[in-house]
Fold this sequence. Notes:
The protein has helices at 8-21, 32-40, 55-59; strands at 25-31, 48-53. The chain is of the alpha+beta class. The chain has one domain (8-59): TATA-Binding Protein. It comes from Winogradskyella thalassocola.
Amino acid sequence: MKTVKGKFETTETMVSALLKEERVGVLTEIDIQITLKEKLNKNFRKHKILGACDPPFAFK
């Protein structure tokens, strides 16, 4: 896990682009803010979990 400062949307875009450069794809995305609101009716800060995969490595 890595914590960075900056706008959430900008950071999310940057992380996705960097993963793509490394030929790593985002297979899943969990929006914690939305999930906690829907399931528990709780407000939470912007927070996402990206499930990344390197296909050749995963195949091995």
